[in-house]
Amino acid sequence: MSVTQTSLAGRRRLSQAELDMMITAHERFLTGKPGGKRASLRFLDLSRLDLAGRDLTDADLSASILDGCRMIRTKLERANLFGSDLRKADLRQANLRRADVRGCCLRGANLGQADLTQADFREGQIAIPHPRKGLDTLRHEDRAGEADGAIFTGATLDGSKFNGSSAFAADFTDCSLKGANLTGCNLKDANLSGAILEGAQVGGANLEGANLSGAVLTGVDTATARMSGADLSGSLRSPTPEALRRGQELIALAAGNQAWCETGGKQGTPAKFDGEDMRPLEGRLKGARLTAMSAKGACMVGLDLSGAQLQGANLEGADLRGACLIKADLRGARLVGANLTKADLRGACFGVLPLSADRSNPAALNQARLRYASVQAADLSAAIFDGADLRGANLTGARTTNTSFRDAEIASAIGFEGG
Q: CA 59, 62, 68, 73 torsion: positive or negative?
């Protein structure tokens, strides 16, 4: 089909060369270079073309056909995809933060590990060209966002708007949906195992037959949702009243650990949080000195431990899903069997902890789960990740000198270059 012809849907077919030229001009526009021009890709047939790795931030692709497009790591932040057709598109690791995908069809699309923070999937009014007269004669109809059978494994959908849309049998395994609006959404038979749904709204949603095993349901009210046949085994609910009451006691234990660190052991003592639900502490341990503390089997989901000093800490079997450990010092820490799925470990230090002139302890993460964790620029030198699950983890820029990954699931990790 020539570029001057129109498809049956009344949309002009673009060649790969034409598309590349328009995207290059758009990228020049974004960087302020001469010859730049904002991309207007509305009402076009771009099906099966390659947009992988390109920057289409703020571009207008509304009502276009992107069926089967290759869009791996494409930047579509704030892009207008209103009413577009993205069926079976490959959008793995794409950036769709605050993108407008109202009335968009994502049936069968792969959005694994994509960033869809605050993306809008709600109903939208789409324009349908006349089958013969094309764009000269348009009719409008309301269409709900559709993501039936789509893959969102490991994706970030925090604050996204799915209300009224359909994601029948979609795969949301290990994704983050914190604060998402799923009101009235059709999630029948969807796989939400291990998903973090903290604070999500599910009123009137259809979750019949959905797999919510191991999901984090903190602050989620399912009273008006349709839950028949849903699997809730191992799901994590809000902290109990007893856990909330113990919050002040745990803060006192943390203060004692801080004093122990500051006085060289003359005052206070290393805190013992074994088996505790520490979620009521929220961000109160940010930057805390918790050297040698013990939190074996503790629930630490979503805690802010950024900048914390956790040298030699025992976090064996702890649940740290979605926890923030940016630039935390974890030298010599024991995290055997810990769950760090979707945790933020950027810039964290997992190096060796010197104990004396001839003794030192490496960080131990044997059998730990770090699926889709952010490990960019972290120091993993000499750490032990034997048998760990790092599928989908981002290790771009991480130091892995002498790091042991024996029998670890590392093949699908991003940016892994080995030691």
A: positive
- Would you state the structure tokens that stand for residue 196, as one six-digit string? 């973090």
Span between the terminal Cα atoms of the chain, in Å: 50
> pLDDT (tens digit, 9 = 90+) per residue, 91-147?
999 999 999 999 999 999 999 999 999 999 987 655 555 555 555 545 545 556 899
Q: What is the DSSP letter of 129?
A: E
Q: What is the pTM of this model?
A: 0.89
Q: Evaluate whether 379 touches 398 at the Cβ level (below 8 Å).
A: yes
Instruction: Say which residues have a Cβ less than 8 Å from residue 5's Cβ, sequence separation at least 6.
Output: 12, 13
φ/ψ of 225, rounded to 5, equals: -85, 155
Q: Which two tokens stand for residue 19?
A: 């598309």
- Domain borders along the chain are 239-419
The answer to whether residue 4 scores a pLDDT higher than 70 is no
List the alpha helices (DSSP H) in 206-354: 241-245, 247-262
How far is Cα 44 from Cα 42, in angstroms, rounded to an integer? Answer: 6
Q: How many residues does the chain have?
A: 419
CA 404/CA 380 separation, integer angstroms: 9
Query: Which CATH topology does 239-419 take?
Result: Pectate Lyase C-like (2.160.20)
Given phi > 0 = left and psi -120 to 50 = alpha, else beta, which region is 136?
Answer: alpha
How many C-beta atoms surround the C-beta of residue 72 within 10 A?
Answer: 18
User: Percent of the chain beyond pLDDT 90?
Assistant: 88
Phi first, then psi, for residue 404 (nearest 5°) are -100, 120
Closest CA to 192 of 216, 212, 166: 212
Reduce the DSSP state of residue 39 to 3 states and report it: coil
Q: What is the DSSP letter of 167?
A: -
Reported for 51-54, long-range contacts at CB under 8 A and 24+ positions apart, including other chains, are 51/19, 51/23, 52/90, 54/23, 54/27
